[in-house]
Amino acid sequence: MHVMKNDLELIRQRLDDIDRTILKALAERQDLVKEVSSYKLETNTGIRDLEREERLLNKIRDLATEVGLDRYYAEHLFREIITNSVRFQTHSLVDHQNQNDAHQVRISYQGTDGAYSHLAAIRHFSERYTQVDCYGYDTFQEAAKALKDGHVDYAVLPIENTTAGSINDTYDILGESNLHIIGEEIIKVVHCLLAVEPVEVSQIRRILSHPKAIEQCTRFLAKLPRCKVESYIDTAISAKKVLEDGDLSQAAIAGAHAADHYGLHVIAHDIANQQENYTRFVVVSNQPVVIDTQIPCKTSLRMVTSHAEGSLVDCLNVLHKHGINVCKLESRPIIHEPFRYSFYVDIEANSADENTANALNELSKEAEEVQIYGSYPKQVN
């Protein structure tokens, strides 16, 4: 079948119309999810009905076969839709039980508009609040100080990346303050090359980005020997500078959301060495939150063990004895105490649960020091 150019444009127009219909239907579905969530809050009904979810997925698989669509593809799409529904209902329950009925929220983060931290803040709060005001700061410390001084309600700080590892500044901020972790957000990092116009990559002579982003894209950059690669403050500020300079031979490594924000063009997509590149952010508050025990949780804490042989193992065995999974263990030097370390631990548990509370109480007796940063909903992936 030979398709003429005009026919192709008509087909693409129909595709655009269908995409718009799909998005409108998803928005309508989300409105119904909000109604379901309100009902469950009023009647104290559990968030998840796993039997109903499985019945729904069975229907989706059968309907996909009926209409000639790949059933596994359809199931994958609807699992994502269900995950988003559960996420919304989880946040609604947390807000309800902590008597949070505000319509406006202020968030601090490190960077500028279009940064991954900015995206994480918007992603975490946009469905829950009518107005989300985000304020970018030059450093993690300044973003945390804005929270401690009461200028914002929450701070969003990156704590680990699947490529670069842990972000030590955030661990140090948590260790030196009385801030509480009340949520997490995991963002897939998709580095792109952004330019003022849709030029060929071969025309680019200068590339700007954060050192970590540059480090994560070395294979792509190695193919551009005529380019000068320069470190800059962060990915979004790099994109902003490319826009302001208006130089067609200049580009920035940043996310596609930065391109949308600054009106730039993506001239190369997904250029990182490792495709599965995620950053985990923690949402930090001056006050802890209470999390219903039906919600899958993480609890983050810091502990200092004694110098005695096997002291770390003894502490971890306390958690093991109570059937608690340790999903992260990170050591950090203790300031002003050379060659002494504290351990940052994430466990899959809720401190409101009696078994977890007993384990943490026992742990506090085994370790020299235990500081609980908070329990918070585990992000469903």
Tell me about this structure.
- The mean pLDDT is 92.
- The two termini are 41 Å apart.
- A hairpin with a 3-residue loop joins β3 and β4.
- With 381 residues, the chain is α/β, with parallel strands linked by helices.
- The chain folds into four domains: 93 residues, Chorismate mutase (Chorismate Mutase Domain, subunit A, Up-down Bundle); 94 residues, Periplasmic binding protein-like II (D-Maltodextrin-Binding Protein, domain 2); 77 residues, D-Maltodextrin-Binding Protein, domain 2; 81 residues, Alpha-Beta Plaits (2-Layer Sandwich).
- α1 packs parallel to α3 and α2 packs antiparallel against α3.
- 43% of the residues lie in helices and 25% in strands.
- Strands 1, 2, 3, 4, 5 and 11 form a six-stranded mixed β-sheet that branches.
Q: What's the quick description here?
A:
The chain has 381 residues and is α/β, with parallel strands linked by helices.
Number of strands: 15
* Count of structural domains: 4
CATH superfamily (homologous) name of the largest domain: Periplasmic binding protein-like II
Secondary-structure element sequence? HHHEHEHEEHEEEHHEHEHEEEHEEHE
| Model regions low in confidence, pLDDT < 50 over at least 5 residues | none
- Beta-strand content estimate: 15-25%
Q: Cα distance, first to last residue?
A: 41 Å
